[in-house]
Amino acid sequence: MANSQSGDSVVDRIVRLISAFPQDAGSLQLSELAERAGLPLTTTHRLVGQLAGHGLLDTAPGGLVRPGLRLWELVNRASPTLALRQAAMPFMEDIQQVLNQNVNLAVLDGRDVLFVERLSRRGSVANRAQVAGRMPLHVSSAGLALMAHQDKSVQAAYLEGFSDPGGTLTADDVRTLLAEASRQGYAQLKAVMDPDTWGIAVPVLNRRQHAVASLGVVVPLREMRLQALVPALQTAARGIARRLADS
């Protein structure tokens, strides 16, 4: 039930509040949290107090607010990504040991790719994939690998509403990339997020041959070895799919 001038329900405001925390900041000032959530300071203060009472947020001296341990506990207890991460981790560790590269695991969420796990190699190129971080799927090899192995209706709806704020890609460009990823069985993007990196990702397919996740690596351009990377990733992806099917 809505009980604010804006028409937002209490649930709407709580979601906005919790979602306002950026992935690269562990805590925010109460005033900054209110601004990011688009809520009045008095409303934010009241909701933070209530959520802190349940352990969903923590407050600290000086007006700092951060996500609470109880929130992490509840999210992870019933998260559908928990089984995926458990199935994938041994294979991700093997990939990192064999290829000595950054490795990430991602799922599709709307028009974004959501990264659920990553392993980084010390001293390697920057890995923009952050656990619980999002990217528009068209700027990520992981996103392209996922969308290329969805139903045609899902792809059509995505392309129909496609827009690139940077103005570098059109819907036809992305359609070509998706067709290429579907035909080859992997997606690759060169120097998109960083000028000296190359992203390679393969789908983790269910019994219907739809992608439920993607497994990818981020490598320096000078270390790009497609003939070694792709077979290793595909073998690992099949192993993850088998473990998911057996769980």
Automatic annotation (TrEMBL):
BP-aspect Gene Ontology terms: negative regulation of DNA-templated transcription
Domain IclR-ED: 70-246
GO molecular function terms noted in the UniProt entry: DNA binding; DNA-binding transcription factor activity
Domain HTH iclR-type: 8-69
Keywords: DNA-binding, Transcription, Transcription regulation
InterPro entries, A to Z: GAF-like_dom_sf, HTH_MetabolicPath_Reg, Tscrpt_reg_IclR_C, Tscrpt_reg_IclR_N, WH-like_DNA-bd_sf, WH_DNA-bd_sf
Keyword Transmembrane set for record: no
Name of the protein in its database record: IclR family transcriptional regulator
Native species: Pseudarthrobacter enclensis
